[in-house]
Design goal:
Length: about 450
């Protein structure tokens, strides 16, 4: 039987998939699954792989085998055939890191013969609605759960990174087959904002465009998507706005000491359904039969009514007058015979700059109860009341922030609260880094030792 054994690779997906597979041993490497390549004078091996990077000057491309996770590099030239999943010709510059591709190549000379975008692969670009599971083995995307493949490649600026390097504010491209993700590419990363001379604004609020709304705490450090923003800082001392550009993995310090201490007020007109609803602003009940005077900046808004879901939002006030219309959503166990005019979909609309925002404050496990007061995070404790902790042992002498709030200098510990948390490490003269960790409710301490920070040039 005429045929050539594949010397490396996995089963070739899509059209032309070989019908036979054979186990072979290559040198001292572990046994790998290989397929019999179709007869051709042009190549002796086929593979479905992840594009890791390519070098147009050296004319090489690095790939990762989809099943074994092994990485290898092939040379290409003007005779190499590059095409999309529909067979249209591509240039190497059009191939992106993280692409899932079907390749043919000559094993001994390590020469790429052809590369085609995998026909069966899905591509989801620019995603911001996602969440990692506590185990780190799956990801929920727009409400749909996907498994993370064992060979998962995560790429940022042409470099492989770890899963915990991803941040919830990053925009991602996901690629995979069926409901399994094989590669994640960071389309938009994150940087950091810290405030200087902000003593008079502690306890107030910071708004970064429409991306972030957070309470101002002492020595805080915010993680923000890279981009250009109007940043507003407000508090009892006054209100101010300035423009800032946030760059990937870089820290921007904003001096708010020069903000004019001028307290401005705007009048907000509320139109709330049902009419029996009670409105609280900054945990204080307000009378909405007329305009409500509020200082410029962010306020905590809560609306309650019997038989309806409580609405909790942030309210941004930024001009002299504005109106806000809100309709509460009926509670699931409410009486269906209630007056239909009082039912709603939870929508709110407004004119002027008194928008109701849905962003959550960047606090460490903070929340609100139905009384409008901040509730304590659910710390993991033993039956006897013993508190369990998360310990950060390295890098030593680095400032440690948990969800943007300063907790101390490493080695340091903080109370264990189940869920997803952002650990940010900062030290003068070194590059700031943020990691995402998943904490379970197991009754034991957890220790993290992160990599040393890189010195800035």
């Amino acid at each position: 039987m005429a045929g050539v054994l594949l010397l490396m690779g996995c089963a070739f997906r899509g059209a032309g998939t070989p019908d036979t597979q054979t186990d072979v041993t290559v040198g001292n490497q572990e046994q790998v699954t290989a397929a019999t390549a179709p007869q051709s004078p042009g190549y002796d091996s086929v593979d479905t792989a992840i594009v890791i990077r390519y070098n147009t000057e050296e004319k090489t491309i690095s790939l990762r085998n989809l099943e074994t996770g092994r990485q290898y590099t092939l040379a290409y030239d003007g005779t190499t055939r590059l095409s999309d999943k529909n067979g249209q010709v591509l240039t190497m510059a059009q191939i992106k890191a993280g692409e899932l591709v079907d390749v043919t190549f000559r094993y001994r000379s390590k020469t790429l013969v052809s590369l085609t975008q995998s026909r069966d692969a899905f591509v989801k670009e620019g995603l911001t609605d996602y969440a990692l599971s506590e185990t780190g083995r799956s990801m929920t995307v727009n409400g749909v759960q996907y498994r993370l493949a064992d060979d998962l490649a995560i790429l940022s600026d042409g470099e492989l990174i770890e899963l915990m390097d991803l941040n919830s504010v990053d925009a991602l491209t996901l690629r995979g087959f069926d409901y399994e993700i094989h590669s994640i590419s960071v389309d938009r990363g994150h940087g950091y904002i810290r405030l200087k001379n902000d003593e008079s604004f502690i306890g107030g609020w910071i708004e970064v465009g429409s991306e972030v709304i957070a309470p101002i705490t002492e020595n805080m450090l915010l993680t923000v998507p890279e981009g250009s923003y109007e940043v507003s800082v407000s508090g009892e001392a006054g209100h101010g706005t300035l423009s800032v550009a946030v760059y990937k993995n870089q820290e921007q310090t904003l001096d708010v000491g020069d903000f004019a201490v001028e307290v401005k007020e705007g009048k907000v007109y509320f139109d709330v359904m049902p009419v029996s609803a009670t409105v609280y602003v900054d945990s204080e009940k307000v009378d909405i039969s007329g305009p409500v005077s509020l200082t410029y900046g962010v306020h905590f808004l809560m609306i309650r009514a019997d038989g309806y879901e409580t609405m909790v939002k942030y309210l941004s006030v930024g001009q002299e007058t504005a109106s806000l219309a809100i309709t509460l959503e009926k509670a699931a166990d409410s009486d269906d015979d209630d007056d239909d005019q009082n039912s709603g979909d939870g929508n709110d609309t407004g004119s002027g700059n008194a928008a109701g925002g849905g962003n959550e404050a960047n606090g460490s496990g903070t929340g609100t109860d139905h009384g409008g007061q901040a509730s304590e995070p659910e710390v993991v404790t033993a039956d006897d009341g013993t508190v369990f902790y998360v310990l950060v042992t390295a890098p030593e002498q680095a400032e440690v922030y948990v969800d943007g709030i300063y907790v101390g200098i490493a080695p340091i510990r903080f109370k264990k609260v189940p869920g997803s948390h952002e650990i940010t490490l900062r030290r003068i003269g070194y590059q700031t880094r943020a990691y995402t960790i998943q904490l379970d409710d197991e009754k034991k301490d957890v220790t993290y030792s992160f990599s040393e920070l890189l010195a800035t040039e």
